[in-house]
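Submission checklist for the structure archive. All mandatory fields must be present; incomplete records are returned to the submitter.

[x] Identifier: histidine kinase
[x] Organism: Cohnella herbarum
[x] Residue count: 468
[x] Sequence attached
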Amino acid sequence: MLFVWIALWTVALILWVADPRSPVNRSLGAVAICGGAGALAATLADVFIPYLHSYHPQQRFEDALYTVQAGSSLVSYYGLPYFYLIFGMAYFPLNMSRSKLWAVYIALLIPIALSVIFTPPYNEKYPVTHSVIVWWAVPYILLGTVFVLSKRSRHFSISHSHWMICLAVLPPVLFAMLMSYVLPSFGMLRMWKYNTWFVVIGVAVFLIGLFTYGFLGLRVLIDRRKRDSTLRVVTSGTAILHHAIKNDAGKMRLFTDKMKAYAESTNQQDLLEDILVVQKASHHIQEMISRVHRRTEDLEIRPREVSMDALIRETLKQHEPLLRKIKLHVSIAEGWQCTLDPAQVAEALNNLISNAIDAMNGEGHLFITLRAGKRELTLEVRDTGPGMDKSASAKALEPFFTTKGGQEANFGLGLPYAYHVMRKHGGSLAIRSRKGVGTRVYLIFSKRRVLAVKRPTSSDLPATFQPL
């Protein structure tokens, strides 16, 4: 039980540190704390208190540990079903106002309060009255499980995480329901000791999920911080390089202009041609580093209310002459007005469409889709090009990484720039690609962050009839 206590409280710490503002992380962390409290109570009862009683008898210290044991046991029995149900409600989530949600949370405490008041107090053999609390604890856990399993998302980026959550959380909690509530209500006590194996499996799944697919956004958070740090380093480096090259290029222009004037005045045609080559090369170098700097510098967002469908269609018009044999498929949820920087978002979308067209080499299918979810607007750009393997997909957002080897003026900054734009808008960018199938890139806007509002469209308005 010592391992279970440490493991569960470590999981809770990871969840809370990763995203303390997330109600899902907070409530699931509380579930882990309650589970760990039960393991702490068992560790104190079976290890620490007997050891002190045998080798270092101090009644006052033993009484203090006994109080901690009793408190931990009660937190585990009463807290686990309660916080698990809250986790399920947050994970689903319920479409309720904050005030109504808090009213539900308080109402769910009533059975716990009645159990504490009207059942016998804690003792080592019967820490709680199992035959009473089973009537509310089991429904809480089953209802929380229904909420978790009812979670549905059409977006791939959280589908793996959802099933990792189901595998890591549901089996240990449901097994604990059986061993800690149902069987003890029939007189089969101390069955909780068998919970250890399911907790170990759950923690193992949590760690595997954390470092592979991500768990409740934890890997996404780690990758995001890594990319943000990389972009800051690249921004600083290109700013310094741009400044240095700009100064040196200015000196080159000054002196080559003087040399050019001298060559013209002395009618030295060969020298004049050489000077022009040097001037052209210096101008090209400055232009190249300026382009890199513009893509990596910190973006200044100038938001205003725009129509998403109009923004997408205007961006698509620029690429129509380049489509050739590429068939375009457009599906846009119309009527959405968002407050964002249209120039930056359009440029980000422009990069994604250009990448898709280049990947298909003049033939294939290009899909542009805008979908509206409960909390997000998802803009998808999908192509039927050669796609990327997992290694290339993992590096796609790294600055200067590119699969377009040898193409002139291709710096591998299109996707990092688009990622940067989405981060500035409080959204995210996700990539899904399979070798030989194609690539999908998602621009995911939080409705709350971009103040998304659905305006009525012609298809939403009722038909009007004119009298004959």
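[x] Structure attached
Curator remark: The beta strands are 304-307, 325-332, 336-340, 363-372, 376-383, 428-434, 438-446, 453-454. The CA atoms of residues 160 and 213 lie 6 Å apart.
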